[in-house]
Amino acid sequence: MRFGPAGYPEAGKTPEGALQYARDLGLDALEVEFVRGARISQERAKAIGDCARRLDVRLSCHAPYFVSFNSESAETREKSVGWVMDTVRAASALGAYIVVIHAASYGKAPGEAMGSVIEGLGRCRDAMAGEGIRGVALGVETMGKKGQFGTLEEIGEVMGSVDGVRPVLDVAHVHARGGGRLRTEADMRALLDEFFPLCGETAHFHISCIRYGDKGEISHLPLEARDPDLRLLAGALDGCERDCTFICESPLIERDAVVFRDMFPKYRRAHPPE
Length: 274
Fold this sequence. Notes:
Helix content is 41%, strand content 20%.
């Protein structure tokens, strides 16, 4: 299992400094946030990737929030392919193994969302093949608002049509979308039983707590909120031998990544608190 923050911790000053800071905390994963656009040169991305490899920090990337394969605007759907591909190219140069994507909202045409997402991601895969980009998965995130495309069932259906797609399990999003459904360790085990058959070689998680209402997600919260209580997730994963990456999206990104890591006895022993 690997644990890390969503984004570069500010204390690191530079990307390389942030990677070193995370490693000094005993963290060994980091998600590079291209949520406002993947504006990085190939040379700079390769340099950061080299640093991550030296430090043994596993990288992933997050595509822009404005991707929307089911937009009413044909221009936005077209641009969405470009935004994902910009992120894929950066991920490839960084050596990141997955690009996390918010695929779509249902909008005014919820019945068209599945076909639109399949078409958009299929075009991305075709472009990746044309450019010879391998080893980067397209990770469709489980979404926390009821108006957004992204249940595990929907992602599984996309996977049946587009190669190289994997689910990204945002545990708090699932909790919020279900009105607080993850209340027991058995609830967490049932969610993992649905997720693991889809996730491929490496299971990619987002973790945080969350504020939610009738329409689902409102905002992410620190782990101390215990809604959901991620100790239940750690308990459900006790003894798990799968390769997992846990990216913390709480407002306290690196601190709560350490808090979650230390919910696992074997990792707490390996990195005793100061």
